[in-house]
Amino acid sequence: MRVMNPCNTYGLHSQIGHTxxxxxxxxxxTLSLLLPLLFANQGRTADWSGPGDxxxxxxxxxxxxxxxxxxxxxxxxxxxxxQHGEDGLLMLHRERWKAFRYYYNDLGNRxxxxxxxxxxxxxxxxxxxxxxxxxxxxxxxxxxLHDLQDDVKLTxxxxxxxxxxxxxxxxxxxxxxxxxxxxxxxxxQEIAERFGADFxxxxxxxxxxxxxxxxxxxxxxxxxxxxxxxxxxxGAAPPHPLVKGMDTxxxxxxxxxxxxxxxxxxxxxxxxxGVDPSLLIAAPPWPEGSDRLSPGEKTEMERYRNFFKxxxxxxxxxxxxxxxxxxxxxxxxxxxATRSIDTxxxxxxxxxxxxxxxxxxxxxxxxxxxxNGLMAQNARRLVQERSxxxxxxxxxxxxxxxxxxxxxxLAELWACxxxxxxxxxxxxxxxxxxxxxxxxxxPPKRSWARDALLRAExxxxxxxxxxxxxxxYNLFCRNCVTELFKIMSEALHQRYSGIKxxxxxxxxxQAVDSMSFIPxxxxxxxxxxxxxxxxxxxxxxxxxxxxxxxxxxxPIEVYLKECNTITSSIYRNGRQDSAFLxxxxxNVFTRPLFGxxxxxxxxxxxxxxxxxxxxxxxxxxxxxxxxALFSLPELFFINIRKGNFALN
Amino acid sequence: xxxSMKTRIFHTILIGTCSVLACMAMTSCSISNSSKSFSDSSSxxxxxxxxxxxxxxxxxxxxxxxxxxxxxxxxxxxTSDDFMRGIARIAERYGVTNWEFFKETYxxxxxxxxHAGVKKEEIDTLPILEGMTGPRTTxxxxxxxxxxxx
Lengths: 648, 150
Hints:
Number of helices of chain B: 6
Shape of chain A: globular
Structural class of chain B: mainly alpha
Largest sheet of chain B: none
Radius of gyration of chain A: 28 Å
Number of strands of chain B: 0
Oligomer: heterodimer
Strand order of the largest sheet of chain A: 4-3-2-1-5-12
Helix content of chain B: 55-70%
Distance between the termini of chain A: 45 Å
C-alpha cells in the first residue's frame, strides 16, 4: 500500500478561523440555493491528500439539519460523516474539510470541537481504508437499488402499447435523422473510414436482433439468483464488505437496458442526430469578451474535440457492457466542441438535471446588487478555471466535466442578473445525462412484460426492505455517532485485535461506541477515554464576531444590541429559522428567561399562522410552532437553536 | 415534602429530556437537498482549491478507490462485466465516463492486484480482466506499471 504524505493542518486554524469573503458574507447564506456551485468538486468528488491524523469532530446542535448535533471523522483534508437521507437511509459522505467547516461552522453558526487522536499512522490508514470501502459498498448498494427501480420502469413501459423507454443520455439529441448537419455527418464518415461503411448499420441491426431474445433468457438466468446472497464469495472466510455489497440480488434486466442504451447510441451515430440546441450553453459574456475563445483556447478546444473522437472510437471497440451512455455523452461533447470551434465561442452541454429545483434568484439573494456581486465573483473563477482546463496539457474528461458544470451554472446566474426570475439549482457535480425516449426494437410480448413487472416489483420491495434493515436510520441505534464508531471499531479489531497500547485500544473505541449515541456525550467519552493529542474549538460565526465586537466596543452595549434578532447587526432573519427573539447560546444563566420570551414571541405567530394557513401553505404556523418547540429546552438551561445564517 | 420535591425534579428532567429529544428527532443527522446545494455553492466561492490542485487530488483519490475495489474483488467470483460496472460507478463520481481511456485506471488496477497478492504471471488469466485487457497491450503495460510501482 502506498503511503501518503500526511497533510496535517491542525493547529493552523485559529480560534477565529477563516472568514472568507467578508463583504459578501451575509449574502452567502442567501445564495445557498441559487448559487451556481461553480465548483464541480464538492462532496464525495472532492480532493485528496491521504490520511493525516485522525480527529473526531463534534458539531453543536442548531435548528435545521442535525438539530441534535452532529459527529464526523476527519482524516487530513477530508471529513467522513453519516447523514440521514430523505429515503430513510443513513448514508456515509465524504467532504472536503474546508467545505464541511464552512457549512457547519460559518453558515450553520455552530461551534465545532475537534479531538485530534494520537493514533499511529498505520491505524489512521486502516480506518481511512475502511471508510473508503464503506463508501464504495454504499455506492454499489444504491446503484443496485436504482437498477431494480429501472427494471420496474422498463417492464412497466414494455407492458404498455407505446413500448418506449427513456435512455440516459439519449435526451441530449434531437431525435430526427440528419439533424446534426455536417458535424454529425463528418463523424459518421470518420467511423466508416475506420470500421467500414456498413459498420454502424450492421451493429445496430445486430443489437436489435439481440434485444428480441434477451429479456427471456435474462429472466431465466436470474430466477435462481434472487436469493443467492453469497453466490460470489469464495472459501469459508467472511466476505469482504465490498463483496457483501456486490452480493445483493442483481437486476436481471440491466444487460437489456445496457443493450438498449447501446442501440440508442449507435442510432444517434448512424442517423447523424444533432445535439438539442437548448442543451448547448454558451459562457456568459462577462467579463466582456469572455464568451469568445482566444486563439490558444481554440487550439485546445480542437485537442478536446479530437480527444472525444478518439473516445468514441475506443468505446466502439470496447467490450464494456455499459458503454451506451459513455458513447452518447462522448458524441454530444464532440458535437458541442465542434460548435464551439465553428462559432469561436465557449459552448458546453447543460449539466442541469431535467428535474432541477427552480428558485427565485433575487428573492433568495436579497438584492440585485448581491446577485451581481456573486456573478462577478464566479465569473472570475470561471476565467481561472478555463485557463487551466484549456491549457497546453493532456485532456482529461473530469476537467471537461468541471468546466461544463461551471459554465452551466454561471449561465443560469447570468440570465438572472439580466432579468430572468427563476434559476435552476442542483447539488454536487453532474454529468450531462438527459434521458430521452427511444422506441424499443423487437419488444417482448406484453403478456411476458406484465408478469415480469410483478417480479420486478417484488424484487424491488425485497431489496428496499434489505437496505432499510442494513442501512436504515434509527435515532438511538444507527445514527451519525454509532455508525462512525462502529466502522472505527471494525477497522481496528480487524487488524489490531488483542493489541492494546496507550495510543490505540480497540476496546476503548468499542466502549465509546456502545455508550454513546448523542454527539456531545460521545465527544465527552472521546476526550475522557481516547487521550486526544489536543482538542480544538472552532467558534461559530456569531460567536467569533461577537468576540471581535467585545474586544473593540462597550461590552454592555454590544451585549444588548446582539442578544436579540431585531437589533443584532450580525444576524439576518431567514426562512430557515423558526420564530425566535433572543439568542440563548452565549449565556446560560439568562437561558430560561430568554426561553420564556421566545415562547411568548412564538404564540402570536402561531395564532396568525392559523389565520394565514390557506394563503402561505402553513409556513407561518409551522415557523411559530417550531419556534416554540425549540424554545422549550431553553427553559431547562439547554440550548439547541443558535440562529442560522443560511436563508433559503 | 421530600418526595414531592423529588417528583418535581424528576418531572422537570423528564420534560426537558423529552423536549430535547423531540427537537433532535425532527432532523437528526439529516441534510436537505437544498442544504447540500447550499453547502456546495458556498464552498465553491470561498473554499475551493485551484484547478490544478483539485485535478491531481481527484486523480489520486480515484486511483485509490479503484485500487481498493480491485483488491477486494480479485479473489471473488465477480464477473468481468460486474467488475467493469463497478469501476464505471467509481469513475463517474469523478466526472469520468470513459474510464478505459484513462491510463490511471489501469495503473490503479495493477496496484490493487499487487496488494491482493496476485502473482505477476497470473494477471493474464484473471477472469475479472477478461473483458478489459484483451489484445490491447497498452492497457496491460499500464497494469504492469501499477503492479510494479507497489
